Structures
1.
Amino acid sequence: MDLFDYADSLRYGELHMKADPRIGLRAIVAVHNLSRGPGIGGCRFIEYDSTEDALRDAMRLARGMTYKAAISGLDHGGGKAVIVRPKGLTEEQRGQIFHAFGEFVDSLGGQYITCEDSGTRVSDMNIVSEHTSHVLGFDPSKGSSGDPSPFTAFGVRRGLQAAVKFKLGRDDLEGLRVAIQGVGNVGYHLARELHDLGAELIVTDVSSGAIARCVKELGATEVAPNEIYGVDCDIFAPCALGAVINDHTIPQLKCSIVAGASNNQLAEDRHGEALRLKGITYAPDYALNAGGLINVAEEYVKYDAEVARQKCSLIYDTIFQILERAGAEELPEGVVADRIVEEMIFG
Ligand code: NAD
């Protein structure tokens, strides 16, 4: 990969790196765009096959955060950190790495604000907070925003309601059939929200415990994981995995709307057009699942859960605006969401 060509293709930006061989630290902070404010994005701590993979991941994810923050109207840009997880990591080494990472984040002077992501935990962010104030979501007992999942689920529900209004002309969800793929943190909270509004739930998961909870508490119907795509329903809500809208699954879909929490639902961009041609309305994932980011961004000012919830509620308007424009311009919804962001940021 030519790094600068790749950076140009993503319209970067800045890339910061810190290494300390004594403790096995290899950290990257990608700051994609700061035109709307400091970049917020989680810190990933996972193994990578190569430095190139880690760089690409950081750069791609930071760009995604720019888009998510902008489409949500937040005064933030996009950033992301990746720390390459050393093989055979010990708890002592983990502590050393996060102390060094905290100093690294602080040295960037607030351009990048970090928080939890895959492989990191609250205790890591507590260590980071000893070195910098540019960290969010670290310790709920110190007034931070805590678990983002209920806010993500609430935002998905609001956006799903906008899609229902746009596609089906209805203000309520009473009796609508929603097939949820994955009833973990977000999927379960979403299922509860939808149940409370009278929706009928069909759920799947690879965890029998997760399914049992929805069947018992919410009267959901269970289907096997490979059957969820073909369920006759109004809304398909992917809340487990990425790339589930693909050549194999699109022919099976019997829904009018795809609206769920998963990131990167379209296996390729062309699958957005394939959904459109099939007459299925797609609520773009990064606009729909921004509730967690909106919630944690509130902490940057002064955390108030009620204000965060009110802001998450506006996902309804964001999704409705995207769907209206996509309809008028006869374009896939994901393309329109990207264009809205690019008009805001790059003019
Ligand atoms: P989670 O791990 O708590 O839940 C995922 C669920 O999917 C689990 O119950 C898991 O058993 C199930 N699952 C895994 N493979 C499956 C399969 N093949 N078929 C059916 N079910 C399967 O994760 P989460 O925090 O609920 O996040 C769900 C999705 O939403 C992820 O893609 C995540 O990136 C995205 N997301 C989450 C948040 C958040 O606030 N947690 C915010 C934005 C986006």
2.
Amino acid sequence: MDLKYVQTTCPYCGTGCSFNLVVKDGKVVGTQPYKRSPVNEGKVCPKGTYAHEFVNSPDRLTKPLIKKDGKFVEATWDEAYDLIAQKFKSYKPDEIACLSSARVSNEENYLLMKLARGVFKTRHIDHCARLCHASTVAGLAASFGSGAMTNSILDIAESKCVFVIGSNTFEQHPLIGRKIMQAKMNGAKVIVFDPRYTPTAKQADLYASFYSGTDVAILNCLMGEIIRNGWEDKEWVSKRAKGYEELKATVLKDDYLPENVEKVSGIAAADLKKAAEWIGTAESSSLLYSMGITQHTVGVDNVKSTANLQMLTGNIGKRGGGVNALRGQNNVQGACDMGCLPVVFTGYQKVIDEAVHKKFADAWGFPDGICEPKNGYEVTVMFNVLTENPGELKAMYIMGENPMLSDPDLTHAEHALEQLEFLVVQDIFLTETAQHADVVLPASCYAEKEGTQTSTERRVQMWRTAQNPPGEAKVDWKILCEVAAAMGYAAQFPYQSAEEIFNEVAALTPSYHGMNYERLNRPEALHWPCPTEDHPGTPILHIGKCSHPDGMGVMHPIEWKPPAEVPDAEYPYILTTGRCIWHWHTGSMTRRSETLDNEVPTGWIEINTEDAKELGIANKEMVRASSRRGKVEVEAKVTDEIKKGVMFMPFHFAECAANVLTNNALDPIAKIPEFKACAVKVEKITEA
Ligand code: SF4
């Protein structure tokens, strides 16, 4: 028996835990602790424990598929490439759009970005960061000049006060939750504000539930209390921030007095005052948030407000402080870093900057040039264009994304995909999106290739090859090289290894300049920015100065605005959505993991006990939940652990898809949809 252990990085959340894959006779059969990772020190959550189970699922795609007469038939790779090349050559650049993936490696994201801009010459490339943290990228960049989590995961344990708003950290990023507990054991106060009494909330010293969509009012209230009591960090504000007087004038308005914000948010004035005191007087205070803050039509405002609070209290560029935006998927940070966004190349170098555009065009050497130096469409805009202006976008290449379950208003998303003349999906399973494709390319999972991923704390870590892809499936970066070759650009995609691709990324990306596989091949890896080969990496950003050219942080005065859709007589409840600890995003991997799927085999809707009584709904009863966009039948979970008037659904489950109900109203800057607040009604299902 051939048995070996291959150290790698978890393919699920953005925490970036490491473990060993157990490989028996060439197949991945289990996971084992890897104790040298400073991130997780040998511990993993249930998803990490069973991260081997989906790898050899019988559902894995093993051959290319081409749709003929509405049905998929198996094809050779050459047949698939010939069809893709013939079709994509027939479209103009602006008729093509590409979606990259928060699941695949940095190297593969970089190559899809190069394929889009260099081979297809389209400006339209984006990925699912648009749906989770586009507001973080925009909001933190406006505040600090860099749109990423400011401090490291390890640093959270150093904090004297941890304020969690819009994150169920213990279920979504469990090994970051462990750092919150370490801070608490070291004497930190933990504050959790959330509409649900989550496992994270249960560990708080101060917990308050609130109405989804009132974050700016809450944060302004906290800042007003801090200023009124003289708890602000006057030195930090005077030396390092711009915009204080405007911010002060806003947050001191009567609207944001605790007694008034209690009426808007549902948080008792006394709790708001206590939270302000704990945050304002702590030696250091760390703020953690996730999609509860970002997935709103005011997502960028919410993010800027978190930054305002942390600047006001001097908790930027400081140990135990920071605005810690917890990124969702394993490599959503890396996909952004690799320029899979419609406005930037790698390292957030602007597409519209002519010097940057020339730098990439020169380095890539396409004889017929690259895309125009213009911004492209965000994924949410692509889907709106498809339905509102049919014929403008005609073809799409989707690598490792499943918008048919992850996008808001799924009826609209399906209608949009149906408008395409030609859709290519590169994935490991025949997902809900792949079922709409004209060509499906069987790809590889994290256990089948070498590469890097960048976790939420900007730590760039390695994947290592544990087994071969199944059947005729191929490693994603090789597929992209072969598509480029079929399009006539083999010379621009000459790579023989993932390392060669990474070296090209590092050469073109200032924040990755000092990285190479030799340096990353160690337990602690490296945090970007790492500008030179002797630079140790940067676990904490903005020490001494922010990343704006003048080094200053920018405070933004922000007024609270309600969500785009609020409860009314017809749809009287607020629906918010999220994840559970056993599943991940659209469930394409976790629902094919026997252990995880056995734990939670389907979805539910959480209904407050009093609301359920008024509606005559019993626990575990099937109910119909409806919004202005659609309806789903789903099991009721009647509980006191959700605020009256608010309902919650996990979004992993196709058979009761929460996103049939959600609203695709967008933040005007980040173009992120308002997943976290829409109006719904819930009814008993009566026999026809
Ligand atoms: Fe994987 Fe995240 Fe769990 Fe760590 S916390 S094992 S990265 S899912």
